[in-house]
C-alpha cells in the first residue's frame, strides 16, 4: 500500500495529445494519474480558433488514415476523419494535374463504411471512421507534366505501391541522408522530384527545403501511399478534447504552471508541490528542456496559416492543392469547408492556406495574389478571417535523426512528445505509447492511491 504522502502514481506535465494519450494508457492500466497544464485549456499546438462560426486551425498539420496510433489510442474511438480527394492536385503552367490518386486508401480503425472518392461511385473500403463528403465535380485536369513522361508516371505509381507495402521498421533501416539528396541518389527523375515529390513532402513535413531525414520522409510517403490525407472533423482541437473528456473525472487540471520536476514530485508556481511515484514531461520541446536541463532543443519549422472566406468558392472540390512551380509563398491550400462542412457556417466557404518558412512582408497580400493564380479566380473580395504565425510549429527532423529518442531518462522521470519521435501527430502519440509502457514496466502493479487535494478543474472551450 502506498504512503498517504503520494497524491498520484504519475504526474503528467502538459495536456497536449502526447500527455493526454499517455494518461489514458496509464489510467486504463489502473495507475492513478494527474495531468497538469499551464494553459487555460488542453491541446497545446493543436488549437482551433472560433471566428463568426468558423473553426480555424492554428497550424493544421495534415493527418493520414494510415497513422496506426489514431486507431490504437484509447479515447479516440469517437474521432471522425474527413478525407481529402485521393492523391493531390498539382498546379503547373496554369493547369491542374491529378497526382498520386492511384495510391491505396487503407484505413485506421476497421471498415465501418465506404468513402466516396471524387467523381467516382462509392466503393467498399477500409477508411474506417472516415465520413464521406458530397463534393462538386473536380476541375478539368490533364495527365503528364509536371510528373514527366508516361514511363516516369508508371514508375512513380509502382514506387508508391511498393512503399505502401513496406514495413515501417524496414524503412528505418535504410541509409539516411537529407530527403532532397536521397531522392536524387535513388535515381528519381528530376522532373518527378520537383513537380510532385518536393511539394508533397514539403506539405507533409512542413519543410520546404527537404532537409528532413530521408527515413522520416519515407515514413511520410508510406502514410500518403497507404492511406488518405485527412482532417479531424470539427478542427484540430477535437483530438485533445476527446482524450481529455474520456479520462477519469478530475484527472486534468488546467491553469497549473509547473516550475520544477523530480522523480518523486512536481513543483508548481501557485499550487505547491504535488508528490508522486513518477513524472512524465509531455510538453513542447523547449519547455521540456527548461524542466529537464540537458535535454536537446531541436530547430523548428515556422508555419503560417491563413484562413479566408468567399461567396464564390473555387471549383477544386475536396483536393489538396500544391504549387509544383513554387511561384509564390503558398505551400498548399484547400477549400476546407468542402472536406469538413462543420468548420464553416451553412452556406459559407472556408479556404485554408499554409505558408512554410519565414512569411514574406505583407503575407496576406502575397498569398492572395498566389491563390488567384492557383485557383484561377479573383481573390480581391475574399475576406481574411485569421492569419496565424507559429515560429516553433514543428520540430525539425534533420539527418541524422533518431526516431526513437529515449523516453525514459531515469527511473521515475520520463519525457514524450513529437520531439522524441517524428514531428507528426502519429509521432506524438507513438512517443506517448512508448513512455506509458516504460512507466508501467518500472512501476509494476498499480495500487490504490491517496486522492490529491483539489486543483483547478479543466475548463472546457465553449
UniProtKB/TrEMBL annotation:
Alphabetized PANTHER family for the sequence: AMINE OXIDASE
Family annotation (Pfam families): Amino_oxidase
Molecular function, one GO term: oxidoreductase activity
Protein's recorded name: Oxidoreductase
Domain Amine oxidase: 17-440
InterPro entries in the record: Amino_oxidase, FAD/NAD-bd_sf
Superkingdom of origin organism: Bacteria
Amino acid at each position: 500500500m502506498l504512503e498517504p504522502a503520494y497524491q498520484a502514481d504519475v504526474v503528467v506535465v502538459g495536456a497536449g495529445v502526447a500527455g493526454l494519450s499517455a494518461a489514458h494508457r496509464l489510467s486504463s492500466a489502473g495507475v492513478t494519474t494527474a495531468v497538469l497544464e499551464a494553459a487555460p485549456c488542453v491541446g497545446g499546438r493543436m488549437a482551433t480558433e472560433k471566428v463568426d462560426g468558423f473553426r480555424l486551425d492554428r497550424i493544421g498539420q495534415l493527418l493520414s488514415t494510415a497513422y496506426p496510433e489514431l486507431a490504437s489510442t484509447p479515447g479516440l474511438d469517437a474521432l471522425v476523419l474527413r478525407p481529402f480527394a485521393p492523391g493531390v492536385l498539382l498546379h503547373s503552367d496554369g493547369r491542374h494535374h491529378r497526382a498520386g490518386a492511384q495510391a491505396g486508401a487503407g484505413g485506421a480503425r476497421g471498415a465501418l463504411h465506404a468513402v466516396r472518392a471524387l467523381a467516382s461511385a462509392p466503393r467498399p473500403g477500409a477508411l474506417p471512421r472516415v465520413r464521406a463528403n458530397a463534393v462538386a465535380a473536380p476541375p478539368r485536369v490533364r495527365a503528364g507534366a509536371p510528373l514527366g513522361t508516361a514511363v516516369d508516371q508508371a514508375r512513380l505509381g509502382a514506387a508508391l505501391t511498393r512503399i505502401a507495402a513496406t514495413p515501417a521498421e524496414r524503412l528505418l533501416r535504410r541509409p539516411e541522408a537529407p530527403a532532397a539528396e536521397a531522392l536524387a541518389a535513388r535515381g528519381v527523375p528530376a522532373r518527378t522530384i520537383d513537380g510532385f515529390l518536393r511539394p508533397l513532402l514539403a506539405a507533409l513535413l512542413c519543410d520546404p527545403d527537404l532537409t528532413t531525414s530521408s527515413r522520416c520522409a519515407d515514413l511520410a510517403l508510406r502514410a500518403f501511399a497507404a492511406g488518405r490525407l485527412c482532417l479531424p472533423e470539427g478542427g484540430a482541437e477535437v483530438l485533445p478534447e476527446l482524450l481529455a473528456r474520456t479520462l477519469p473525472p478530475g484527472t486534468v487540471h488546467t491553469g497549473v504552471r509547473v516550475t520544477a520536476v523530480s522523480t518523486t514530485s512536481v513543483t508548481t508556481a501557485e499550487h505547491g508541490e504535488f508528490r508522486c511515484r513518477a513524472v512524465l514531461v509531455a510538453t513542447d520541446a523547449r519547455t521540456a528542456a527548461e524542466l529537464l536541463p540537458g535535454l536537446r532543443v531541436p530547430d523548428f519549422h515556422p508555419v503560417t496559416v491563413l484562413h479566408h472566406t468567399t461567396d464564390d468558392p473555387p471549383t477544386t472540390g475536396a483536393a489538396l492543392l500544391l504549387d509544383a512551380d513554387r511561384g509564390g509563398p503558398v505551400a498548399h491550400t484547400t477549400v476546407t469547408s468542402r472536406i469538413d462542412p462543420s468548420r464553416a457556417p451553412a452556406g459559407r466557404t472556408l479556404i485554408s492556406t499554409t505558408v512554410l518558412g519565414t512569411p514574406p512582408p505583407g503575407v496576406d497580400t502575397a498569398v492572395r495574389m498566389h491563390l488567384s493564380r492557383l485557383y484561377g479566380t479573383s481573390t480581391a473580395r475574399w475576406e481574411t478571417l485569421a492569419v496565424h504565425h507559429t515560429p516553433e510549429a514543428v520540430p525539425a527532423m534533420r539527418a541524422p535523426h533518431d526516431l526513437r529518442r529515449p523516453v525514459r531518462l531515469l527511473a521515475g522521470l520520463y519525457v514524450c512528445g513529437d520531439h522524441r519521435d517524428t514531428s507528426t501527430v502519429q509521432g506524438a502519440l507513438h512517443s506517448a505509447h512508448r513512455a506509458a509502457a516504460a512507466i508501467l514496466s518500472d512501476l509494476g502493479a498499480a495500487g490504490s492511491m491517496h486522492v490529491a487535494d483539489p486543483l483547478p478543474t479543466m475548463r472546457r472551450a465553449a
